[in-house]
Amino acid sequence: DAGITQSPRHKVTETGTPVTLRCHQTENHRYMYWYRQDPGHGLRLIHYSYGVKDTDKGEVSDGYSVSRSKTEDFLLTLESATSSQTSVYFCAIRAGLASTDTQYFGPGTRLTVL
Amino acid sequence: AQKVTQAQTEISVVEKEDVTLDCVYETRDTTYYLFWYKQPPSGELVFLIRRNSFDEQNEISGRYSWNFQKSTSSFNFTITASQVVDSAVYFCALSEANQAGTALIFGKGTTLSVSS
């Protein structure tokens, strides 16, 4: 258990509304990630963070923004949700400073955009 | 460019059968790591193994074993004497050493169904 929680765990929202997902970790890991999981695509990186206020884009970052004001929290925001953003969102932490260290995942958030 | 291919989309077996999940990867990096994760029906992602590119020894953990072959760029996962609790989606993933902050590159997953 890497001490990662995500909230909310489930959310249904309407197209055009803003949505913020929260990832919280208790073990002071420097690197945090947001992935989305879609059928037929595996997991794909949205954004990641390498420290407080330090973030970078991933493969599928369009339509998403992130913020990290504290080590323990990494927020993912959909400024104006679209149906294509219906997905399961996973937060992960990297258990070390090396790029090849193991990533451990939170329980996921299932988001439905109607 | 890096890529992970899991050609088997779905596999169905009967309990006690052995099953092998295939994983083929592409990378230009000489230092990289390979991973397997399990996603049971409850949805969480469970880390199973991490293997570096310099260690081609097979790994065994209980009923699980992994065969890493650089010559064929494969990192296959075998479950011996499968059980119903092994039913899950299994993901193979790749991480390269030369990319700071790098994401894991995932395959699309193999869904394993074990029936009693």
Record keyword descriptors for this entry:
heterodimer; A: 114 residues; mainly beta; 11 strands; B: 116 residues; six-stranded mixed β-sheet; four-stranded antiparallel β-sheet; globular
Detail the topology: elements first, then pairings.
The complex is a heterodimer of chains A (114) and B (116).
Chain A: E1 4-7, E2 10-13, E3 19-25, E4 32-38, E5 42-51, E6 54-57, E7 64-70, E8 73-78, E9 87-94, E10 103-105, E11 109-113
Parallel strand pairs in A: 2-11
Antiparallel strand pairs in A: 1-3, 3-8, 4-5, 4-9, 5-6, 7-8, 9-10, 9-11
Chain B: E1 3-5, E2 10-14, E3 19-21, E4 24-26, E5 32-39, E6 46-52, E7 59-61, E8 64-69, E9 74-79, E10 88-96, E11 105-106, E12 110-115
Parallel strand pairs in B: 2-12
Antiparallel strand pairs in B: 1-4, 3-9, 5-6, 5-10, 7-8, 8-9, 10-11, 10-12
**Helical residue percent of chain B?**
under 10%
* Relative strand content of chain B: over 45%
Strand-and-helix sequence of chain B, N→C? EEEEEEEEEEEE
Query: Biggest chain pair contact, residues each?
Result: A-B, 25 and 27 residues
Describe the biggest sheet of chain B? Answer: 6 strands, mixed
Number of strands of chain A: 11
CA radius of gyration of chain B: 14 Å
- List the total number of helices of chain B: 0
| Main structural class of chain B | mainly beta
Uncertain runs of chain B with pLDDT below 50, 5 residues or more? Answer: none
Helices and strands of chain A, in order, run as EEEEEEEEEEE
Q: What structural class do the secondary elements of chain A suggest?
A: mainly beta
Number of helices of chain A: 0
Percentage of residues in DSSP E strands of chain A: over 45%
Measured between the Cα atoms of the first and last residue of chain A, the distance is: 33 Å
- Overall pLDDT confidence of chain A: 94
User: Approximately how much helix is present in the residues of chain A?
Assistant: under 10%
Tally of extended strands of chain B?
12
The stretches of 5 or more residues of chain A where confidence is low (pLDDT under 50) are none
> Average pLDDT of chain B, to the nearest integer?
93
